[in-house]
Amino acid sequence: MNSAVQAFAKLPDQVTVAESATATGRTESGVKNWIDTYDDFPSAEDRRDRLHLRRRDQVLNWLQHHPNLVNEDRRGSRNLAQRARAARPSAEYLTVSETAEALGVTMASIQCYAASAKPQFSRDPFPPATRRGELSLRSWPAVRSWIPRRDEPLPSRVMPWQELRPWLLAVYDEEKDDPSPGCDERGLTYAQRDVLERTRVATAQGHAVPDRWTVEMFGAGSLDDAETADGVRAAADRIPPSELAAGLGITIGSLRGYARRPPAG
Asked: Is the pLDDT of residue 54 over 90?
């Protein structure tokens, strides 16, 4: 709470939802959830353009009466992507409380993400929950991949491949050499799974992802193949073009040239 008090002290006398979110380390959706949930949350008393303004001291006073919402160990969106990538839950499918524990946020935050990023509201919706007996569970690798995309979403404009490819590999390039990678139940590393999730989002939004690249990344002919255990086992017996080229002592360009026009003999 001390850091929130210090952050609020630097704000103007009247604060917006966005400023309150920044000061508390929450998302704007999280602060709006407080407004909708708690009847005693300070009311807006003015407007700046289309933004509602609340008295800074009243908001801070309200937070001091609800210290559990600003636990210093559960900092909302701050460093959320780093925490997601560092977490290694023991199970692949998690409840809301287990997901919140893995990310270091409140259960309300997870429920807020799910509510604010429904398919009808978002081009990249929060991973859906599935019922397993009496439990409602979400895929941890899917949630783990969604968190960084929330901060750096895929642009709405159609991107040429040379711009789309770095976005698809944003997490993979940083994690591909991890000596202790997490893996999903299909055998994909978390880095590979992130590429798979990003590729699905891109194709769903109308971006073209070359089949040749999918084969190179997953050793599979399609995204559906990459998500099946049989596809992963088949991939284990296949060599990516980069490794094959290195083994033969030639460039990938030469290897692809041979693939298009096999040399005589």
From this structure: yes
* CA atoms of 250 and 226, how far apart (whole Å): 27
Q: What is the 3-state composition of the chain as percent helix, strand, coil, each rounded to the nearest 5? A: 55, 10, 40
Q: Are 97 and 135 in contact (CB under 8 A)?
A: no
Give residue 20's identity as a one-letter amino acid code: S
- The predicted-structure confidence for 67-123, as pLDDT tens digits, reads as follows 766 654 444 455 788 889 888 888 899 999 899 888 888 888 888 888 888 888 888
Cβ distance 56 to 64 under 8 Å? no
- How many beta carbons lie within 10 A of that of residue 46, not counting itself? 10
Radius of gyration (C-alpha) of the chain in whole angstroms = 23
SS3 227: coil
What is the C-alpha separation between 41 and 63, in angstroms, rounded? 9
**For residue 226, which of 256, 199, 201 has the smallest C-alpha distance?**
199
CA dihedral of residues 254, 259, 260, 265 (deg, nearest 10): 90
φ/ψ (deg, to 5) at 219:
65, 25
Least Cα distance to 215 among 231, 228, 229 occurs for 231
Q: Is-contact 51 35, C-beta < 8 A? A: no
Identify each DSSP E strand in 81-152 by its residue range. 93-94, 130-132, 135-139
Place of tokens 């001291």: 57
Spatial distance between the Cα atoms of 202 and 209, rounded to a whole number of angstroms: 8
